[in-house]
Amino acid sequence: QLDANELVLKWPKDDHMHLLRIDATTGERRAQLTDGGWDVSRIVAVDEGKRVLFIANRDAVLDRALYAVKLAGGGSDRAAIVKLSSEGGVHAVHAQHKHGWIDIHSAADRPPKAEMFDVTGKKIGSIDVPRAADFAALKLRTPRMVTVHNDGKPDLFGQLLEPRNMQPGVRYPT
User: Fold this and answer.
1) What share of the chain has pLDDT > 90, as a percent?
2) Is 40 exposed, middle or buried (0-12, 13-18, 19+ CB in 10 A)?
């Protein structure tokens, strides 16, 4: 685990949120753990392997995946940061110290899944995420992802749900 007088926290760096290990008493910076053009959204845990588990959008701007980096530091070294999530989408991870974690994840094109992992990252089981009996009657469709390029500024992302009976050449209200 962390030394008694250390903290790991999210810290702004170059317009992005990253992980920094500091001395809890003096505030001295000990190690920049992550770096780059992506954001850490949440610290999940510090595990027995002296790694920080965290949620970030490192590999896909719209995803929120689980990653690990050693407390000794990773910085801009891409090999030092290990992606633990195997599927794209948004992951909500709940860690249990010494026991592993539960990963509940979903994406626009698939329903939620709940999976359990041991501390080494080995999948040890899954939990069914039940659907209401009348779910199929909703006839839900997967929206189309769209990107609006913003003239040198960050891209804007959205979802477009077209009418069920979309016909070419017909104008539809927005």
Assistant:
1) 54
2) buried
- Full-model pTM: 0.83
Rounded distance, CA 73 to CA 21, Å?
8
Classify 78 as helix, strand or coil: helix
Distance CA 89, CA 74 (A): 24
Q: Mean pLDDT over all residues of the chain?
A: 89
Closest CA to 16 of 43, 34, 31, 30: 34
Instruction: List the beta bridge partners of residue 34.
Output: none
Nearest to 71 by CA among 53, 95, 87, 83: 53
pLDDT number for residue 1? 56
- Give the C-alpha separation, 47 to 117, whole Å: 13
pLDDT, tens digit, 9 for 90 and up, residues 45-58? 988 778 899 999 99
With a pLDDT cut of 70, the percent of the chain lying above it is 95
CB 67 within 8 A of CB 33: no
Residues of the chain with pLDDT under 70: 1, 74-78, 97
Q: Using an 8 Å Cβ cutoff, are 116 and 124 in contact? A: yes
CB 67 within 8 A of CB 82: yes
Are the beta carbons of 147 and 156 closer than 8 angstroms? yes
Q: For residues 159 and 144, what is the distance between their CA atoms, to the nearest angstrom?
A: 5
